[in-house]
């Protein structure tokens, strides 16, 4: 199983288990922020953790997800910041093969919880 496979399997399960609005937010953030982090980590290879994760990628993932939550999906800044920090930590510490599955599942759960408590 590759990272792309786990991403699409995770997106499929997220689509089945969560309302469409939550799926759209979670999928867009994971697709865009993870790609930006991967490209940025390759361009600025500073602070490696394991095989492919870098501090630059971590920072880019967090910054991109904050901007997407806050500016595109109109989630207030503080919740967007908290969700992005949690997602960045999950992305940083999750195993390589199932990272994308865990990322989309946890993102969907966080957004679902946010909409429940707001």
Notable traits:
two-stranded antiparallel sheet, 2 strands, 5 helices, 118 residues, single chain, mainly alpha
Task: Please summarize what this structure is.
The chain is mostly helical and 118 residues long.
Strand content: under 5%
Task: Going across the biggest sheet, name each strand in turn.
Answer: 1-2
Please count the helical segments: 5
**What's the Cα radius of gyration?**
13 Å
State the domain count.
1
Shape descriptor reads globular
| Parts with pLDDT < 50 across at least 5 consecutive residues | none
Give the class from helix and strand content and strand pairing: mainly alpha
E-strand count: 2
Mean pLDDT rating: 90
Spell the H/E element sequence: HHEEHHH
Please outline the major beta sheet.
2 strands, antiparallel
Helix content: over 70%
State the end-to-end distance. 37 Å
């Amino acid at each position: 199983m590759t990272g792309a496979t786990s991403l699409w399997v995770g997106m499929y399960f997220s689509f089945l288990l969560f309302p469409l609005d939550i799926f759209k937010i979670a999928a867009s953030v994971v697709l865009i922020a993870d790609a930006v982090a991967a490209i940025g980590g390759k361009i600025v290879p500073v602070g490696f953790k394991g095989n492919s994760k870098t501090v630059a990628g971590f920072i880019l993932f967090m910054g991109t997800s904050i901007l997407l939550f806050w500016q595109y999906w109109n989630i207030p800044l503080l919740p967007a910041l908290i969700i992005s920090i949690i997602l960045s930590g999950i992305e940083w510490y999750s195993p390589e093969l199932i990272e994308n599955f865990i990322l989309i599942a946890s993102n969907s759960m966080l957004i679902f919880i946010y909409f429940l408590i707001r």
